[in-house]
Amino acid sequence: MLCKEGRKRGIRIVLDGVFNHTGSDSVYFNKKGTFDSVGAFQSKESPYFSWYTFIEYPDKYESWWGIDTLPAVNEEDPDFLQFITGMEGIARKWLQLGASGWRLDVLDELPDSFIEAFRRAAKSYEQDTLLIGEVWEDASYKISYGKRRRYLLGEQMDSIMNYPFMNGIIQFVRNGDAEKLHEVVTTILQHYPSCVVHCLMNMLGTHDTKRILTALGEKNVQELPRELQAQMKMSASERQEAIRLLKMASLIQMTLPGVPCIYYGDEAGLEGYEDPFNRRCFPWGKEEKTLQHWYERLGTIRKQWDVFKEGQYKTLYAKEQVYLFQRYNGLEKVIVGVNRSDTPFQFEIATPYVDLLQNRDVSDEYMMKPNTVCFLGKKL
To answer: Is 218 a catalytic residue?
Structure first.
C-alpha cells in the first residue's frame, strides 16, 4: 500500500538491505527464544544453522565487528544465497510488492559473488531497479580484505553513497577549504562513469554520522563521555550560526551532480551526535521553519531545471574560501556559489541570468557578499 500510494505521488521506495549480519534475536538466530521456530543458536538442526559460523557452539560465533548481538552471515552459503537471491527470494519478493530498489549495507563486507547474484535477481524482475551501495570512500579503487573491488564495472552497483562529497562540503562550509572541495568533486567525477555520477546518493548526514547541524555547529566535544554527548545542545546563537552554514551546505548538496538525499529531520533542525543520538524522533510541531522553507525552495528550483538531472559540471573558482561552479546542458546553465570569506567576491556574467533565490535579473557583474551564496540560472 505504501509503495502504491507513493507512486501516485511520484515517490519510489528504496529499501535498506542488511545482508551481512542478522540480529541475535532474529527468527534465524533466535538466541533469546523469542520465536517458536528453531534458530541457529538453539540447534544444529535448524534450517538456518549453516548461515552462521560458530567457533564454539553455541555461545561463540563470528559477528559483525565483534558485536555479539549481530551474528555475521556466510553470504556464500547456498541456502542463504537461495533465500536472498533465488526466484522466490527476498530481493525479488519486495520488488514484487512495490519497492523500486535496494541500498546494500556494508557493501565492502559482502563478497562479489553475493553482490552479483543479488543484482541478477533484482534486475531480472525489473531492469530499472536501483541498486546503491554503502561505501565510505572512492568506490572506483576501493580495496577491502586485500581485494580490489569492482562495484562500478556494470555487474554490481548502479551507484554509491557519496561520502566524499559529504565530507568535502562539511570541510568547506566549516573551514572555507574551497581547494579541497574542488579536488574531491573533480576526482569523483573523473573516476566514476557518468551513469553512476547522475544517481550518486548525495547526503550531508546519515544514521551513521553526526546530525549535519551538529557537525557544522559542534565545538569539538568528540572526547566527551557519551552520557554528556547525549545532553549536549547548542546555544541559541550557536544554533543560528549552524543553520546559516547548513543553508550553504545544502545549496551545494542540492546542485552538485547526483541525487540529493535528506536524512529525515535535518530539514527540521534536529541535532545529535553519533548513534543513537542522531536517531531522535522527528520534531513534529517543533520544526525549524526557516530551514524547512529553505529546503522547500531548493527542492522547487531543482524540479524546475532539467540541468540537475544529467547536466555537465565545471568549477569556475575554488580558492580564497570561495567555491563557484556551473551546471550546464544544451538548454540551461546554472551558476552556484558560496563565499565563506570575510570579503566580497565579484565575478563577471557574460550574458543575463536570473537570481533564482531573489527572482531578479542580473547581468554584467555579480557581487557575493561575505558569507553568502548565489544561485543563478538561465535558459538558452
So the answer is: no
The alpha carbon of 377 is separated from its chain's Cα centroid by a whole number of angstroms, namely: 26
Q: What is the pLDDT of residues 28-65, one digit of tens each?
A: 999 999 999 999 999 999 999 999 999 999 999 999 99
Residue in 75, 108, 134, 266 annotated catalytic: 134
Q: Which residues contact 64 (CB under 8 A, 6 or more apart)?
A: 20, 21, 70, 71, 72, 106, 109
In this structure, which topology does domain 12-304 adopt according to CATH?
A: TIM Barrel (3.20.20)
Kindly list the domain boundaries of the chain, sorted by start residue.
12-304, 311-379
In words, the CATH class of domain 311-379 is mainly beta
pLDDT band at 220 (very low <50, low <70, confident <90, very high): low
Q: Check 25, 77, 79, 105 and give the catalytic one.
A: 105
Outline where the chain has alpha helix (H): 2-8, 78-85, 90-96, 112-125, 163-175, 178-191, 194-197, 212-217, 226-229, 236-255, 289-304, 307-310
The whole-model pTM stands at 0.95
Is 208 annotated in the active site? no
